[in-house]
Write a structure and sequence with these properties.
It is built from six helices and eleven strands. The chain is α/β, with parallel strands linked by helices. A hairpin with a 2-residue loop joins strand 2 and strand 3.
C-alpha cells in the first residue's frame, strides 16, 4: 500500500508553499482543504487545494493560517511529510527576502540556485531515529535546476504580460538565518563576505527535507527590503508590507502561468 493510499487522498502533483505575503493563490478556484496527520506533530497539517484548468494544486501556508508561526518554530518536517503523503512531486517555495547584492533591490525577484544555512536548533532531517543505517543525501545543488528554469520561463511570460515590469536575478546564493529578528549590519557584512546575495529565514531545513523525500524543489523569492547596512536608510515596515502585497499579486500570476503553460488540462502530470 502506498503512502497516498494510507492517508486516503488523491495524488496531487504540484504544491506551493506560501511565505510572507502570499496568503492565497489568486486566479485559482478554491477546491477545499485536507488535514493530514504526520508522525512529527500532534496537530494535523492543513493543506489547501486550488484548481485551475482541471488541475488541482496544493497550497501550504508556511507560517500557518493566521501567520503566527515564526521561522524557527515552523514544523518543517511535518509540512514536507504531509505534502509527500498526498503524492506531491514538485514544490515551488515562495518567500520574502532582504537584498544584499545590489542587483536584488526591493520589489525585484530572485531564483536562488545555492544556499548557506546559518540557522540552528531546527529539526533538519528525517534520518535521525530508528535507522537501519546512516543516510547521506547529495545536497551539492539544493534547488532543482529543471524546475528553476521552467519557473524562470513562466516568470518572464507573466512579466511580458504585466503592465509593470519586474526584474529577476536568475541564480544566486540565499543565506538562511535563524530569525525571527532581522540581522545586524555586521551579520550582513559577514553574509556578503561569505558570498550571499540575499538573506531569508525559511528555506532551510525545508529544501534539505524536500531533497530527502525526493521532491523537485525551487524557490521564487521576493525582495521586500535592503538587508541591514546595505543602504543608509531605516527600515520602513509599511513600505515592506506594501511591497510584499504587490509582489504576492505578481507571484500568484506567475504560479497560474506556470501551471497553465506546463501541465495538460486533464491532471497534473508531466515528464
Amino acid at each position: 500500500m502506498t503512502l497516498v493510499e494510507q492517508v486516503g487522498v488523491e495524488s496531487i502533483m504540484l504544491a506551493i508553499i506560501g511565505g510572507t505575503g502570499l496568503e492565497q493563490i489568486k486566479g485559482f478556484k478554491d477546491a477545499g482543504f485536507k488535514r493530514i496527520a504526520t508522525p512529527f506533530s500532534k496537530s494535523r497539517v492543513i493543506i489547501e487545494l486550488y484548481s485551475i484548468n482541471s488541475n488541482t494544486v496544493a497550497f501550504l501556508r508556511r507560517h500557518g493560517r493566521q501567520h503566527n508561526i515564526p521561522p524557527h518554530k515552523i514544523n518543517y518536517r511535518a509540512n514536507i511529510w504531509a505534502l509527500h503523503a498526498i503524492g506531491v512531486k514538485e514544490i515551488i517555495a515562495t518567500n520574502a527576502i532582504g537584498g544584499i547584492n545590489p542587483e536584488v533591490c526591493p520589489g525585484s525577484f530572485i531564483l536562488p540556485d545555492q544556499l548557506i544555512d546559518y540557522s540552528y536548533g531546527r529539526y533538519s532531517t528525517f534520518y535521525d531515529e530508528d535507522l537501519k543505517r546512516v543516510t547521506h543525501i547529495d545536497f551539492s545543488v539544493p534547488f532543482t535546476e529543471e524546475l528553476r528554469q521552467t519557473l524562470k520561463s513562466s516568470f518572464h511570460f507573466s512579466n511580458g504580460n504585466s503592465a509593470k515590469r519586474r526584474t529577476l536575478m536568475n541564480g544566486g546564493v540565499y543565506g538562511c538565518t535563524q530569525g525571527p529578528r532581522l540581522e545586524t549590519a555586521a551579520e550582513i557584512r559577514r553574509l556578503h563576505n561569505d558570498g550571499c546575495d540575499v538573506v531569508g529565514m525559511t528555506l532551510m531545513p525545508e529544501a534539505a527535507l524536500a531533497r530527502e523525500l525526493g521532491f523537485k524543489y525551487a524557490a521564487l523569492s521576493l525582495c521586500v527590503n535592503w538587508a541591514a547596512g546595505v543602504k543608509d536608510e531605516e527600515l520602513d515596515m509599511e513600505k515592506i508590507k506594501s511591497i510584499a502585497e504587490e509582489g504576492a499579486e505578481f507571484t500568484s500570476q506567475v504560479i497560474c502561468d506556470f501551471v497553465t503553460l506546463n501541465y495538460p488540462k486533464k491532471g497534473l502530470a508531466r515528464d
